[in-house]
Amino acid sequence: AGRRARALGVIEELEGIFATPIERLRLIADEMVEEMQRGLTSDLAGSSLKMILSYVDKLPTGDEKGLFYALDLGGTNFRVLRVQLGGREARLVKQEYEEVSIPPHIMVGGSIELFDFIASALANFVATEGEDFHLPEGRQRELGFTFSFPVKQTSISSGNLIKWTKGFSIEDTVGKDVVAELTKAMERQGLDMRVTALVNDTIGTLAGGRYGDQDVVAAVILGTGTNAAYVEHANAIPKWDGLLPSSGKMVINMEWGNFRSKDLPITDYDRSLDFESLNPGEQIYEKMISGMYLGEIVRRVLLRIAQEASIFGEVVPPRLEVPFILRTPHMSAMHHDTSPDLKIVAAKLKDVLGIANIPLQTRKMVVGVCDIVAKRGARLAAAGIYGILKKLGRDTVQTEKQKTVIAMDGGLYEHYSIFSECLVDTLRELLGEEASSSVVIKLANDGSGIGAALLAASHSQYL
Ligand code: ADP
Ligand code: MG
Predict the structure, then answer these.
(1) What is this model's ipTM?
(2) 201 partner at 20 to 30 Å CA-CA among 34, 145, 157, 303?
């Protein structure tokens, strides 16, 4: 009885410290707007948001034509892809892709090894190009490179890595132009291809989304990590000192995973997770909402309950002490368990954590922990989107019935339905019924790869 009371005490405490009441979300959204503003003003203004200029000032129109490749590096998998674009009428004639998983030692090894690994996978893929794809005589193949880490962009096709995130840690790439590194690796592979667009997955998703729907104004990624991009008025970017683009627009890569605000409900679990992470002090928002971390937060909470209330027996199960052993897909499987005796929860606890014979009450408690952690993440993500809508002036009822579409991508949003439903509900609550009727979140499945290929087309050397 003492145990159960102690465990319930911890849960009650959790509900308090993880709470995200709507007023608090509004404060967070307002701070997001302020940080966006500050980041657009100057790189030295001290914003937690880098608000990186993407050099993308035109998004796909539908007229793009030809064969284009894309490479998408941004998480544990990377994808190579080719499309045959047929212009306004024929549109996307054919697409093919392949997914390759990155061995863990490559993620924390040397720069040359990483780029050689990527270029070799790309070369293998190009070798399988079939008859449905046509490269005009005498032309070089062109590639859009989706590289989903913070980059200081120097042109549409060059940019220096600011830092690694999401478990990558390769010191000698930091500060280098990743397009130059990739180009050298392609040369080492004997692959004749030119990178014509370097973009982030958010910008790729925005471009891919816009190709399918002209009302897309922003893109959000909720996968291993999280980020957002949106279309800004070029004259609302004080730090932009180049010529105003003819479109009057510029896509901004927010790097919102690094967002920080005094109103974020940061708990001791978040603090210790951050402290022990590969990038302490950075990506605080990402560490509260993205797929790489949600399962790990749950593990930390369960470990504490096990230590304080012995809910898994007198001895703390050793596997529960292993960082990142409980992945977000495990968490999501437990959270969605609708069987009366929670047998999926029991199976995950046994298979992943080596904990067997757990009473139903305790299984329910585990689901409760997943619920608290997932909903905090989803609600904080909704507050961020609401912030972008406010910055764009699309948080109120649109007189001319303007639709606002947010292109969304990422395995977390796609597969964790309790998370995505909570996000959508929270955004509706923040916007109010009327304004929310003109706002749509559209799942753009793998839009970033196609988007990069589309941007490679709109920035082709042959135009
Ligand atoms: P990436 O972000 O690495 O480019 P994805 O967009 O495919 O790749 O997202 C993968 C991430 O999505 C995983 O790291 C995981 O955190 C999350 N994810 C995948 N499947 C599920 C699932 N069933 N439930 C919850 N989260 C999931
Ligand atoms: Mg991705």
Answers:
(1) 0.99
(2) 34
Backbone angles phi, psi at 114, to 5 degrees: -60, -50
Query: Of 375, 383, 380, which is closest to residue 26 (Cα–Cα)?
Result: 383
Q: Ligand 1 within 6 A of 336 CB?
A: no
Mention every residue, 6+ apart, whose C-beta is less than 8 A from residue 234: 57, 240, 244, 245, 247, 248, 249, 250
Cβ–ligand 1 distance for 76 under 6 Å, the answer: yes
Identify the helix (H) or strand (E) that includes residue 454.
Answer: helix 447-458
Please indicate whether residue 418, judged by its CB atom, sits closer than 6 Å to ligand 1: no
Contact 427, 33 (CB under 8 A): no
pTM of the model: 0.92
In whole angstroms, what is the distance from residue 455 CA to residue 440 CA?
Answer: 24
| Cα 281 to ligand 2 centre (Å) | 23
Q: Which of 47, 48, 54, 148 is catalytic?
A: 148
Atom of ligand 1 nearest to the CA of 290: 16
Which residue type occupies 219? A
**For this structure, is 79 an active site residue?**
yes
Write phi, then psi, for 413 (nearest 5 degrees). -65, -40
Ligand 1 neighbourhood includes 412 CB (under 6 angstroms) = yes
